[in-house]
User: Which sequence fits this backbone?
């Protein structure tokens, strides 16, 4: 199966692009989410605009803007850099909202209890709020991550040689189109299934913990 | 920190908490319309009244979990709130809050931590106690509230009555000068309330200064030095339990007591 083999050879590029964009997206999302939840109105508004802008522009448009339009001191990014920047920035808005959703899922009473105990702000964040927000945040991040893995295929349009780009190339060279895209699709699908599987494993302890209380409570009341 | 506390304690003869003309509004709605209250050391005060009378708001304003709209709050002689704003820095406010133990209606335990960890967290991070010492104190307190065999359980594995006892232990672990209870039994099954009330009664007998917002009138009658009846955001009547439950002066209190009695029978 030389078609599959050729496609798989470009898989590392797809994975690298996905991973780098995810890391950049998260690195941007954390301060943006913090600003979005800040008491400072200017920060909050700025973060809101950032989120709306990067969520509102189609990834493909963003990709073209960065690749064709961005030029710093006469230096233009190569296609891989441009793709990471575009995918990372467009991810940052979604990811920031996932983080915010996680913190908002923690009941306000938890903050009050931390206040009543006068816990220092960082302890409140690290020991009380974050552990409770984390499951919700990770659900959002993982589901976006799966989406992002597929979105990397767009980068082929600005010349990144990923799985999709090799697929185009093979078809242009006369290999049967449906066969090539069937394998390309299968590779993306498998990648996504793998990510979903990992997400399921990460979420398992939490689901188990959630399932336990009812039984434990009954037991406790009998005791 | 502990020495500073005992100094402050020794110097003080006056009220532990003194509030004057406290008001609180949410937009147009006036929830508190000028409350005056003094709490002396060792005193147990119950605050009773119909739902929506402002009881809970009052107790939440006492440790400034909610900011009053007006009036003054003095704690141990220090002015914490005056002229419509918090009169101390963040650090002092935190110091003060750690001296006022708060017990919430919905327990508000940290679900990600075990009972023992819940009780130790503030000791370690607010008071700066070494972990071993904090855990030892937590174990003592949990034993005292009858939960020696539940220390490693998380809140979700405990009944309401057990969770609230952990919450009381958590507040006591901070060596508070005063304990504030905001309807501590309202969210608990009737059968399990007694275990919480017993712990509170014991605390009262040991001389803890307590302010208790409650619907449990019998309990209020038994443990309080003073009962404060609030309706419509004002203190309508206050006095020793015998005067409140025995010979209500105001029509509003008589109505309230009659209504409660009807549902209790």
Assistant:
């Amino acid at each position: 199966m030389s078609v599959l083999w050729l496609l798989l050879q470009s898989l590392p590029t797809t994975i690298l692009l996905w991973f780098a964009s995810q890391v950049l997206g998260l690195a941007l999302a954390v301060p943006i989410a913090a600003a979005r939840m800040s008491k400072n109105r200017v920060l909050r508004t700025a973060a809101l605009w950032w989120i709306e802008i990067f969520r509102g522009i189609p990834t493909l448009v963003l990709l073209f803007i960065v690749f064709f339009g961005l030029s710093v001191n006469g230096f233009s990014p190569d296609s891989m850099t441009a793709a990471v920047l575009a995918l990372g920035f467009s991810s940052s808005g979604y990811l920031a909202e996932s983080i915010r959703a996680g913190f908002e899922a923690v009941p306000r009473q938890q903050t009050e209890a931390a206040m009543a105990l006068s816990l220092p702000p960082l302890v409140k964040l690290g020991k009380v709020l974050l552990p409770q927000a984390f499951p919700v945040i990770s659900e959002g991040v993982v589901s976006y991550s799966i989406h992002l893995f597929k979105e990397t295929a767009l980068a082929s349009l600005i010349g990144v040689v990923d799985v999709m780009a090799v697929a185009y190339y093979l078809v242009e060279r006369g290999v049967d189109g449906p066969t090539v895209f069937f394998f390309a699709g299968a590779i993306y699908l498998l990648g996504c299934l793998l990510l979903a599987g990992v997400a399921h494993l990460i979420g398992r302890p939490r689901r188990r913990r959630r399932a336990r209380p009812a039984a434990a409570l009954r037991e406790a009341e009998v005791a | 920190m502990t020495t500073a506390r005992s100094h402050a304690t020794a110097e003080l003869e006056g009220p532990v908490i003194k509030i004057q003309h406290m008001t609180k509004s949410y937009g147009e709605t006036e929830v508190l319309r000028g409350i005056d209250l003094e709490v002396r050391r060792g005193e147990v005060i119950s605050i009773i009244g119909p739902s929506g009378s402002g009881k809970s708001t009052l107790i939440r304003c006492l440790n400034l979990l909610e900011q009053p709209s007006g009036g003054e709050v003095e704690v141990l002689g220090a002015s914490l709130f005056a002229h419509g704003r918090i009169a101390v820095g963040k650090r002092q406010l935190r110091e003060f809050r750690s001296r006022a133990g708060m017990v919430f209606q919905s327990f508000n335990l940290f679900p990600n931590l075990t009972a023992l960890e819940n009780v130790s967290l503030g000791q370690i991070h607010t008071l700066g106690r070494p972990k071993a010492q904090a855990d030892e104190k937590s174990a003592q307190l949990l034993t005292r509230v009858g939960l020696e065999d539940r220390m490693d359980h998380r809140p979700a594995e405990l009944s309401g009555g057990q969770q609230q006892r952990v919450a009381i232990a958590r507040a006591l672990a901070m060596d508070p000068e005063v304990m504030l209870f905001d309807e501590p039994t309202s969210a608990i099954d009737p059968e399990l309330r007694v275990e919480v009330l017993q712990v509170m009664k014991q605390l009262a007998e040991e001389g803890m200064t307590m302010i208790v917002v409650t619907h449990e009138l019998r309990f209020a009658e038994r443990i309080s030095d003073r009962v404060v009846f609030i309706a419509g955001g004002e203190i309508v009547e206050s006095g020793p339990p015998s005067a409140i439950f025995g010979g209500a002066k105001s029509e509003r209190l008589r109505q309230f007591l009659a209504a409660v009695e009807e549902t209790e029978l």
Remarks:
- Residues 6 and 12 of chain B are 10 Å apart (CA to CA).
